[in-house]
Amino acid sequence: MEAFSDGVFAVAVTLLVFDLKVPDHREGQLLSELARQWPAYAGFFASFLYTAVIWLNHHTAFTRIRHVDRGLHFANLTLLFTTALIPFPTAVLSHALIDGVNSADARTAVALYAGIAAAMCAAWLLLYTTVHRGRDRLVEADIDPGTFAADRWRSIIGIVGYLSAGVVGALVYPAIALAVFVCLPIFYAATSEGALHLFGNSRRGGSTQ
Amino acid sequence: MEAFSDGVFAVAVTLLVFDLKVPDHREGQLLSELARQWPAYAGFFASFLYTAVIWLNHHTAFTRIRHVDRGLHFANLTLLFTTALIPFPTAVLSHALIDGVNSADARTAVALYAGIAAAMCAAWLLLYTTVHRGRDRLVEADIDPGTFAADRWRSIIGIVGYLSAGVVGALVYPAIALAVFVCLPIFYAATSEGALHLFGNSRRGGSTQ
Amino acid sequence: MEAFSDGVFAVAVTLLVFDLKVPDHREGQLLSELARQWPAYAGFFASFLYTAVIWLNHHTAFTRIRHVDRGLHFANLTLLFTTALIPFPTAVLSHALIDGVNSADARTAVALYAGIAAAMCAAWLLLYTTVHRGRDRLVEADIDPGTFAADRWRSIIGIVGYLSAGVVGALVYPAIALAVFVCLPIFYAATSEGALHLFGNSRRGGSTQ
Amino acid sequence: MEAFSDGVFAVAVTLLVFDLKVPDHREGQLLSELARQWPAYAGFFASFLYTAVIWLNHHTAFTRIRHVDRGLHFANLTLLFTTALIPFPTAVLSHALIDGVNSADARTAVALYAGIAAAMCAAWLLLYTTVHRGRDRLVEADIDPGTFAADRWRSIIGIVGYLSAGVVGALVYPAIALAVFVCLPIFYAATSEGALHLFGNSRRGGSTQ
C-alpha cells in the first residue's frame, strides 16, 4: 500500500509544475511578464510544501503501523483523494491573485482552497481515529498506545484553522487566509514526528529508511 | 510487476485532476463559473473512486498470487491498458453533461464510458480466468481453490451491468446510466475481499501491508 | 534502479492518454467528431503496446542481472531516454494521419517515428552488449552465458526493420511503415522471454513476481 | 524514502516530453516546422540528462546512507523541490531561444535557468553537509568517513559555475551560458561515484542493484 501512496504523492507534487507556464509576451517583455505571475510561484511553493509535509506525516505514521485492514485502506484512499485534488484549488488561487489580492474572485478562491484543505485534515482525523481504535491489531508493539490519539488533535487544529481562514478570507480580508495557508503546513512539518513527541516523549525518534 | 502496476494506478488516479480547469471568467464571475462545471467534479469523483477500487481489487488479488507467468503478464497489461484509458471517457462525459444531461452528445458520451468500463471488466474476467486455470502454479498455497473462480462472477456482473447501462443510456435516458456508473464501483469496493468472502468464508481476511 | 525504471515506464505509458482529447464539436456532432480522430486511438494503442512490451523485456532482462555497474547504468538511461520520448512521435503521427494517410506530412511523421523507434532498438543493443561483455560480474549464475548475445539479434532486427520502414514510408507509401510499426512490437512481445527460448531452451521459463 | 524520491525523479524526467508539442503547420509544412523548434529538442535532451544524472548521484549517495533523520528528510525535500521545478526554466529557455539566441528574452531565460540550477547545487551542498555532520549515525560503516566531505566540493563547483554562467549569459553573451549548461551535467555524470573516487580510491566501486 505504501508503494501506491508514495506514487500518488510523488506524482501530485511533481504535477504542480504545470501551473508554471511560459507567459505570453511581446519580444523583450519576458522578464516583466515572468515577474507579473508571482502568485503562481507562491502557489507552487506553498502546495509543494504542503504535499511534501503530508507525505512526511504519512511516512511517519506508516512506520508505526504493521497491518492494514479494510477500514484503514478506505481512510487512506480518502486522504489520497484530497491530496490528488490539491493542484486544482492551487491553480484557481494563483489565477485569482494575479487579478488582485482583495477582489471578489480572490475571496472565492480562498474559500475553495480552505474548504479542500480542511477536508484533507478531516481525512487525517479519520485515518488517525481508525488506527487508534484498532491499535491492538494495527500498530507496531513498541509504539506508545496514546500516539495516534494525540495526533488527532493535530487534525482538529487543521480543520478549525482552515475553516476559520476560509470564513475570514471570504468575508473580511483574503490576505489573512493566505498567511494561515503558509503557517499551517509549517506547523505540520514541525510536528511531523507526532504530537506526543512535542511533550518530550521521543522513545522512537528518527524513522529508518 | 506490482511496482509497475502500482505506478500506473498512481499516475492514472492523479492525472484525473487535469480535467479540473480554472474556468474562463469575467472579473467577479469566478464563483458562478466554478459552480457551472459541476459535472467535471462529479466525473473526477467517480473516476477516482473507480480507479482506486480497481487498485484495491488488484492489490487483494496479488497478495494471493505467488508467481506470474507470461499469460498472467498479458492479462495484467490488458487491465492496465483499460485503466490508463479511463481519463478519456471521463473527460468526454464531463464535457457532454455541461451542455445538458439529456442531449444527443450525452447519449454518445454515456455509451463510450459504458463500453470502456465493460472492456475493463472483460480484462478482469481474463485475469481471474488465467489465475484460476493455473492455480496450482500461480496461487499461494493457503488460499481457497475456488477463490478466483468465484471472482469471475463479479467481472461478469460488471460486463452485463455496464453494457446494459450503455444501451439504456444511449437509447432511453442517459441519467439511468450515470446511476449505474456510480453504483458499480461501490459494488466492487464492497466486495474487494473477493466473492467468496461474501458468503461467510473469511479464512484470510485483511491484507498485510 | 528497477524502481526508477519502472516509474519511468509507468508514467510514460499513462501519459499517452493526453493525446486523446475531447474534440471540439458543434452540439449533436460529438459522435462523428470522436470517430474522425481514429488515428489518435490507433496511436494510443500502438504506443501503449510498444511501451508495455519494452517494460516486459526490461523486466525479463533484469530478473537475470544481479549487479549494475556504471556502464549498465548509462545504457539503461539511454533506453529510458528513448522511452520517455515515444509520446512525441506518436502525437505527431496521429495528427498527420488525420489529414490523410498518404500526404507529405504523413511521410515526415512516419520517418520521425521510425527514426526514434530505431534509436530505441540501438539503446537495447547497447544494453545487451554491455551485459554480455560483463556477464561474469553482472549476470545471475544460473543463466545460460549465451542469453544476452542471442538477444542482440532481436535489437538488430528492430534497427534494420524500423529504418527500412522509415525509408519506404517516406519515399514510397506511408501505410507500409504503419504495418511495420504494429508488427515489430508484436514480434518483441512474442520473444520477450529472450531469443534463446525460441530454440527450445527454456531452462528458466516464467519470471517470478 | 527512496521510493518517494525515485517517484519524483521518474515523473519529472518523463514529464519533460510535454515541452515537445506538435507544431501548428499548414499542410505540407510539418517537416520545416518540426525543424524550426530545435531548441525544444535541445532543452529536452539537456534537462533529461541533468535530471537523470541527479537521480544517479542521489542513488549513489543513498546506497551509502543507512539511516534518515529529520534533518536529512528536509535536505532531501529541498533537493526534490528544485528537481520538480526544472521543467519550468527548461520551457522558458526553449521558447526564448526560438526567437533568437542573443535576444533580451534569451538573456532573461538564461539567468532564470542558471539561478534554479545553482539553487539545486545549493540543495546538494545542504544534503552532503547534513550527512557529513551526522556521519556516525547516518552513514554505512564500510564507507570512507571523508566521502561526503569531499562531495561538498562538487556542489560548490556547481554553485559557482551556474551563477557565473548566469551573470555572463545575461550581461555578455547567452551562448556561453548554454555551453556551461551542457558541460556541468557531464561533469556530474563523470563524477557520480563521488569525488573521492577521482583520486584513485575505489574501495567500493559499483553500486549493487
Notes on the structure:
Chain A is mostly helical and 209 residues long. Chain A has one domain (2-198). Helices cover 72% and strands 0% of the residues of chain A. The first copy, chain A, contains 9 helices and no strands. Chain A has helices spanning 2-15, 30-36, 38-63, 70-85, 87-98, 104-133, 135-138, 147-171, 174-190. In chain A, helix 5 runs antiparallel to helix 6. The first copy, chain A, is elongated, with a radius of gyration of 19 Å. Chain A starts with a helix and ends in a 19-residue tail after the last helix. The A-B interface holds A 1-4, 6-8, 10-12, 15, 18, 62, 65-70, 73-74, 77, 80-81, 84-85, 87-88, 91-92, 95-96, 99, 103-105, 108-109, 112 and B 2-3, 6-7, 9-11, 13-18, 20, 22, 25, 27-31, 34, 44, 48, 52, 55-56, 59, 189, 192-193, 205-209.
